[in-house]
Amino acid sequence: MMLLKTSLRSFFAHKGRMVLSLIAVVLSVAFVSGTLVFSNTATSTFDRLFASTASDIAVQPAKTGLDGEDDDDRPAGKVATVPADAVEKVAAVAGVKQALGQVFVSNAVLVNPVTNKAIGPTGGAPTLTGNWTDTPRNSVEITSGHVPQGADQLVLDADTAKKAKLGLGDRIRVITATNGTHEFTLAGIATFKTTNPGAALAFLDTPTAQKDLLGKSEFTSVEAFGDGSRTNEQLKADALGKLGGGFQVKTAAEQQEENSKSVGSFLNFMKYAMLGFAGISLLVGGFLIINTFSMLVAQRTREIGLLRAIGGSRRQVNRSVLVEALILGVLGSTLGLGAGLGLAVGLIGLMNAVGMNLDAGDLQIGLNVPIAAYAVGIVITVLAAWIPARRASRIAPMAALRDHGTPAEARSNVVRTIAGLVLTAGGGGLLVLAASADKAATGGQYLGLGVLLTLIGFVVLGPLLATTVVRVLGAALPAVFGPSGKLAQRNAMRSPRRTGATAAALMIGLALVIGASVFTSSMIESTNQQIDKSVGADYVISSSQGIVNPDMVKAAAGTPGIAHVTEHKSLPALLTLPDGGTFRKHVSAVSATFGDDFRLEVKSGSVESLKQGSLALGEEFAAEQKLKVGDTVKVDYGNGHTQSVPVGAVLSKGDSLFAGATFVGIDTLAKAVPAADMPLDVQIYGKAAAGADVARTLGALEDSLKDYPQLKVRDQAGYKELVQDQVNTLLYMIYGLLALAIVVAVLGVVNTLALSVVERTREIGLLRAIGLSRRQLRRMIRLESVVIALFGAVLGTGLGLAWGITGQQVLKEQGLATLSVPAGTIAATLIASVVIGLVAALVPAFRAGRMNVLAAIATD
């Protein structure tokens, strides 16, 4: 009880100094709990949707795993179907009350003819077009108009109609993958009964859906509902018996599991990204807490000595500090849990903005949320306080009463220095090994471990580095700012351990952003150089759906000023090598003009050999399997379509556009795969005719394809911008992490300076008494803050450069051939560090300036 009273008294005596540490705990816990609440709510919402709409059994075409695996290896744009008589067979199964044929495809595009813009989700959710069926578990109901009746009518979901500003009687164009373009009149609006998962739904009548979407009188699945006399498993077994081979049957539970898995992959991305933010907050917050308790322990040295002198044991002193940390952890976790609920509501609002309708009033706070919140908040706080607590318990009573530090401190510094040097040297050695590794996978493993060890090494070495680096960084301060500058430099060097821990939080954030900037900048520069070097095509035409159909190819090829259009198809295949080994790979089938549009470097053979019916392989795959030009490879495209093809070219590694790709000519593919099974193009390339104006032809090409708003036409400059935009998505995530790290790092600097001002109260009073003005005092504290921030920035920049350069070297042979160091980003980082230091010093400097001189001198 005495221990608890002492801890509580100490905690509330320093409550103002605990606030910033509390904020760090709250941020960490908020990200963890908010992420879990959002994930629980989204998962629960979709589970209810899938459970309320799944049929008892669903009959679907069998998957086409080329090597016997239960995977679906269908070519791009191809939709698997079941024959119409499957409906009657399933309906005849004992216990089936109703069986319905269903048509649903995700490769059709809905267009508003008035605006000529695609309608539907833009956040990754699908646009599903199919037939209207009356089932016992429809996900939607007609709330305006009526069901589709006839070949020119369409029903649209209410959310999509609202966003596209469409109403009954409006026209909608449907661009199908293989069956042309059709226009319909909006005859009905359907509203989701539970929640809209973010998809756009369009319904036609059954004959029209079969004709326009599939081109044949078949279905994509048969949905059956039982009469309750038999279990779903029994219905499944009997249906398989009736149907024979070529089908798969899934129960309601299996459908729910499959749907949840597909949604879960997207939710998991968000979940782990948010937990990454929580991890950064935990890491940098840990340094803040360590610093806070270290300084509080230092300020309570005499108090600790008195406790020891009157009989308090080392264990009791240790526990006293840890109980304070426990109080901080419990309070921070409680506040963080509340903040996490607010964060979850914000995430739900963000998802609703992109079309995924979730109900913020139905938050799912499972038991895992408070358990994780309190575990994270309490564990990180107690662990961070353990080092200062242990240090406090080792202070001898008489030394503490004389305000002396622990005698073991010098020995501790030696151990810290040795450990830091060993860790940093080991991490540096691993980075060197990573840069010189023969295989990217091996280099990546070395890189990951090297990053971890160098980071820990720099944190451990922080106090040693602070003495040297701060002396250099602050060397000009005395000359420029006089006494204020000299005092600021000495203050920053006075407690190297404190300076090192304060700067560590900022160091971590800046190391991340510099490393990521070097890597992404190198990626962009390497790809741009590869485009300039390899791409001879003037235009790249791609679709938001990854499918370019024959009508689009024909329109592009007929554009005035276009010399030719090169098609690029992709399809799964199983390669059987001369030694009998088999490998599943995606094969790129290209037109004969591909060699004119792309200048690919070869290790051996010639790209021109594709025109003679050969195969082109990547250098690494060929080397690993000991393949050479002239060897014959058997290629299985599925559905019994096979052919033997000689290797005609081995492509050099290092191509960032087509690294590791396997090529075959479309003419060669057509000898094995009939037109009906031929995949659609995933991308096409255009070449301007000799003498044609490239810019004017670009406009003509866009005009030729204006009826297909899902297509994007880019010239080489636009292609470079596309690559840069894709890379920047990763970079923005890193910048988000940096922003969070900076917030916590600023809190750390503020806390350190605030506690330092309290610690040096008498000293500040004496300085004021001998003539130091308030302005000079505030300047001294601001300069001290700037030096600490710059110290963290310098360490972070050094680490980030080492990580980024090593990452580029690891992937040098995989296309990241050019190193690009973003000098602008580095300069901006150093300038931002000065600003951070100035901002962090505002409150402590203001408080120091208001201090009463006589009261400060009288402070014990």
UniProtKB/TrEMBL annotation:
<feature type="transmembrane region" description="Helical">
    <location>
        <begin position="449"/>
        <end position="482"/>
    </location>
</feature>
<dbReference type="Pfam" id="PF12704">
    <property type="entry name" value="MacB_PCD"/>
</dbReference>
<feature type="domain" description="ABC3 transporter permease C-terminal">
    <location>
        <begin position="737"/>
        <end position="852"/>
    </location>
</feature>
<feature type="domain" description="ABC3 transporter permease C-terminal">
    <location>
        <begin position="277"/>
        <end position="397"/>
    </location>
</feature>
<dbReference type="InterPro" id="IPR003838">
    <property type="entry name" value="ABC3_permease_C"/>
</dbReference>
<feature type="domain" description="MacB-like periplasmic core">
    <location>
        <begin position="19"/>
        <end position="215"/>
    </location>
</feature>
<feature type="transmembrane region" description="Helical">
    <location>
        <begin position="783"/>
        <end position="805"/>
    </location>
</feature>
<dbReference type="InterPro" id="IPR050250">
    <property type="entry name" value="Macrolide_Exporter_MacB"/>
</dbReference>
<keyword id="KW-0472">Membrane</keyword>
<feature type="transmembrane region" description="Helical">
    <location>
        <begin position="371"/>
        <end position="389"/>
    </location>
</feature>
<protein>
    <submittedName>
        <fullName>ABC transporter permease</fullName>
    </submittedName>
</protein>
<keyword id="KW-1003">Cell membrane</keyword>
<comment type="similarity">
    <text>Belongs to the ABC-4 integral membrane protein family.</text>
</comment>
<feature type="transmembrane region" description="Helical">
    <location>
        <begin position="825"/>
        <end position="846"/>
    </location>
</feature>
<feature type="transmembrane region" description="Helical">
    <location>
        <begin position="503"/>
        <end position="524"/>
    </location>
</feature>
<keyword id="KW-1133">Transmembrane helix</keyword>
<feature type="domain" description="MacB-like periplasmic core">
    <location>
        <begin position="499"/>
        <end position="702"/>
    </location>
</feature>
<feature type="transmembrane region" description="Helical">
    <location>
        <begin position="321"/>
        <end position="351"/>
    </location>
</feature>
<keyword id="KW-0812">Transmembrane</keyword>
<feature type="transmembrane region" description="Helical">
    <location>
        <begin position="272"/>
        <end position="298"/>
    </location>
</feature>
<feature type="transmembrane region" description="Helical">
    <location>
        <begin position="730"/>
        <end position="758"/>
    </location>
</feature>
<dbReference type="Pfam" id="PF02687">
    <property type="entry name" value="FtsX"/>
</dbReference>
<feature type="transmembrane region" description="Helical">
    <location>
        <begin position="418"/>
        <end position="437"/>
    </location>
</feature>
<dbReference type="InterPro" id="IPR025857">
    <property type="entry name" value="MacB_PCD"/>
</dbReference>
